[in-house]
Amino acid sequence: xxxxxxxxxxxYNFDKDNPIIFLHxxxxxxxVMKVFKDEFENNKLLFIDMPGFGKSxxxxxxxxxxxxxxxxEFLKELNIKKFCIxxxxxxxxxATLLNPRYLVLLxxxxxxxxxxxxxKVKIKLFKxxxxxxxxxxxxxxxxxxxxxxxxxxxxxFKNVVDEDFSDKFKNYRGKAIVxxxxxxxxxxxxxxxxxxxxxxSNLIMLSGNHYFFLNKQNKNIxxxxxxxxxxx
Length: 232
Hints:
The chain is of the alpha/beta class.
């Protein structure tokens, strides 16, 4: 475990080439991605806590492009090339902006989906009442992804939550593969299908929720297909 440029990270298989970089989703950290730590013995592996998550603390307000710019600087500092990046959820958007040779998306965010009636009502009610309660009212209405955040990370969340990445996916020119969970309520199978079409990539749907890759059988399928992608 080490820190460089304010980013906490862990690096494995130091003597290997063709690095695989793992980026976690919103509200998570590098630990969840370390499920893949022992799966790629022939590749250098880099697990990162993105700023504001895990042990990479920050007081700044971010947007997705700023995350990508910071990680690009970080990778140059470590002299690690952008060979393959695996991004989960929010990490998928950052991975896409980094434009690696190989892109692996695990239920990536970036496709705007219709909000439910319940969510629409909560938004309208929050806007009506927020002038009376400030942060106290905010905590009653924000999603589980935003509860108990510092003010800067709440502002960051608002910056990134409803971004349409359709053009970013469409303009990616490397080789990609998309994985999704058939019971995922955060990123629907329909959204994963659209991303795969925009990337002109294969789509593999697996059984499970937003963290479908933590299932051992799913992890093995993902690992096998990543190796096929980068070695083929």
